Description:
Largest sheet of chain A: 5 strands, parallel
Number of strands of chain A: 25
Strand content of chain A: 15-25%
Oligomer: homodimer
Amino acid sequence: MEGAALTRRGLLVGIGAAGGAGAMYAAMGALGLAPSEPSEQEKEFVPPRTGDFTLRGKGTAKVVILGAGVAGLTAAYELGKAGYDCTLLEARQKAGGRNLTLRGGDRLTELNGPAQDVRFGEGVYFNAGPGRIAPWMVTLDYCRELGVPIETFINTNAAAYVHVNDRTVRARTARADMYGYVAELLAKATNVGALDKTLTKDDRERLLEFLRRFGDLGPKHAYEGSDRRGFTKYPAIDIGTPLDAPASLHRVLAAGTGRAITNDFGYEQATPMFQPVGGMDVIVAKLTEAVGKERIRTGVKVTKITNLADGVEITWDGGALKADYCIAALPPHILAKIPHNLGAEVTAALTTPTPIAAGKIGLEYGRRWWELEDRIYGGVTETDLDITHIWYPSHGYHSERGLLVGYYATEGDAELYGALTPQDRRHRALTQGKKIHGEKYRQNLLSSASIAWERQEHIQGGWVRWPAFDSSFTFLQRPAGRVYFAGDWLTHLIAWQAGAMESARGVVTRLHQRVLQSP
Amino acid sequence: MEGAALTRRGLLVGIGAAGGAGAMYAAMGALGLAPSEPSEQEKEFVPPRTGDFTLRGKGTAKVVILGAGVAGLTAAYELGKAGYDCTLLEARQKAGGRNLTLRGGDRLTELNGPAQDVRFGEGVYFNAGPGRIAPWMVTLDYCRELGVPIETFINTNAAAYVHVNDRTVRARTARADMYGYVAELLAKATNVGALDKTLTKDDRERLLEFLRRFGDLGPKHAYEGSDRRGFTKYPAIDIGTPLDAPASLHRVLAAGTGRAITNDFGYEQATPMFQPVGGMDVIVAKLTEAVGKERIRTGVKVTKITNLADGVEITWDGGALKADYCIAALPPHILAKIPHNLGAEVTAALTTPTPIAAGKIGLEYGRRWWELEDRIYGGVTETDLDITHIWYPSHGYHSERGLLVGYYATEGDAELYGALTPQDRRHRALTQGKKIHGEKYRQNLLSSASIAWERQEHIQGGWVRWPAFDSSFTFLQRPAGRVYFAGDWLTHLIAWQAGAMESARGVVTRLHQRVLQSP
């Protein structure tokens, strides 16, 4: 009987691989394996809304998940839907990992630094970790499935500033000038015949037509400035007051605005982007609710991972737990430090990626001067200062208070800020932001909170970088005995929640196939 | 005593012009003109929130406003704040003019066409008139002042399509390819020395650095495609499946995507843009509430405007009204048809601008397939078809139903759709949209409603075009006797609500100055 079941299961996995989950499930029914009338206890978890990812076939194994960050929560959520009995062990005091939203009343501690009491007003929040979601990312599918309402995160704003080489200019102006001169130069080269070997006569005409449009060129293909640069006073009853004429080609090239104005060209940052209404951690709250709060044990610092022939044993200070399988969803550099019997190759692979420092500061103001005076509604000011960016809030428009992200720094800049006291971080961020926004940047400030992810206990980094996506990366995609690994760090979506979710989906799919195959 | 008051008033206007409204108001207090303890009735209207535009000094004149569109409502609102007694006469059955939002239960009639009963589901709306607001526009100030909540209108979406010359491609792909080849061509011209007379060595290096970034060029400054084009399968655990390689330079130029990918370059259309939460007519509702519903008389078709020595008389079928001043806030071609004694020059000026046809269709679907399958969350697909654009909704993400704007056509295309029955408009719009989205564009359709603005009674046009902003335009900025003119058509913001609001502000400022100066 056991042998027969094994064969059937093997067959099912084959059908699943070839025909997809639907085919596998249909075959299970035909083979009499699908429960026809499940008892109340056996009923599959029904997600809040239909998801497009579902494990088919019921799993009955017990799974312990290390880390209740987004990868761990997603794994528990998907396994729970398929009938698994999951327990999450989380070293920190709350679930979510880097998906952390700070609000008034929160207390933020860090390694080697003073604690911060967050004093933001009612309704004000600071997404200290991830803050935006691209529409192609699986994160949006989870928002849909879990009923997390979303709204636009404005990642590109023509009215935001570019601050490079000590000069501040609106993004629209920097872009109009670069595009204008690029168009003029290419039109000139085309017209003097420099590209005649490359371009047919038709090509040339089409190219010139595009360049006139692209650069808003004058009749002789010269860039003479353009409405697109913006106005001192925008058109109304009169035609408006344009800005001063653009600087020379030489000065525009020397201004160095190129990085800033191409920042949203990539597939990860292209407009539009999205955010959950009310804070990024609404995703954590909804995942937690769906998984079952009682399955998440916080404050549990694992001291040992033991792979056994018939299961896995997890030990911590004052307790231990045995399960059929383990999913280790911790940052690799944290996981590497936990004693285990998974072999030296696992440890070597886990220590291959390097943690990267990342930090942010939330600056809460009592007046949304960026909307009232600068007409900046959401978006990002790009700088070559150590603050790198200033993010303006994409929600709560026209309300009394608002929170800017005063720096979002990585690597060296993040370490610089991270090494300061919270007070000194704020002081430095304000000094830098003042270069762009003037004295008002220091006025009306109500409170602030800053995070240095490399100083967050049990996380110790914003994300990791692999020297190459080679053997170590591939090696950890496979389980070590009964221990699977999951996290954004095992994907090509590092530093995105979507990576954690994709990794979790991959792991639970493979774990589930194994369970279905097991005797 | 009257003479003394006149002198004081003249002085006040002088102070106001020189020192602003605050100085004028302070001077009024000093001169004993500002009421120290106004009676309940005399109290100035207090706007819901502080606005940045306020008439100072109390006006007591009676003003009749023709047309309760955005210009008329704004004029009444601002005059009401300053103490004027305003009456609005509106020929249509409701206020708002072109600011029209259609919802289930509405009935839309048009000239020479069948009525449409709007059957949209709960919460679904169609902004049949204006749909988006640029952040620099005064419309946002009124949203703030009136307490109209706003949200992002996504005007640029890398995931939306460009459909030109019978080919459909994602906007991100069209843009990456054009930018890539433009960068390659200019790099080539630069490297062969074609621009050596224009560029210094430093310029050349900076330009090449920018071009590598701008076009995502390969090491030899060649465009070889790029991640920015998008993926068949986006990166996850694996690196993703890129799209096929880009077409040749020749084919990319011939594709003709230039207009589509530069559509958001202007100051009016640049990202981000905004919309009121719940429909554009929330602005109308809040203005109506602030003005006082009882001041708006709908269904009143004015038959005569008579300028008198001491006032103005407005006549309609079955009634007449006398006031101190009139603000005619109707479309010029409608106003020109109403008999008046304002002189032939006024009629000539009013008939100078030409009304432009404009039309839209709202297509309500029972499934948001554009989000679920195309991963298009808001934004606009640009086409060279007669539908011109498809707008995807920038709200209600992930909900069950949703409404697309299936065409937003102007001039000839609008006339083409306008001449069809509502059923045929829908049929044509679906046939066109299917070229982009396939058969699903016709499936799941629940209902539709279409508008041809040139067929809307008492409006008869989407907006107007001036042959030139010359003497007629300037002439109508001034009153004809006691009759003032207001509307977007008297500004450089034609077809924008901001134009109507700016015009209204201008008119009430001049009218108020005159009242303060009058004996």
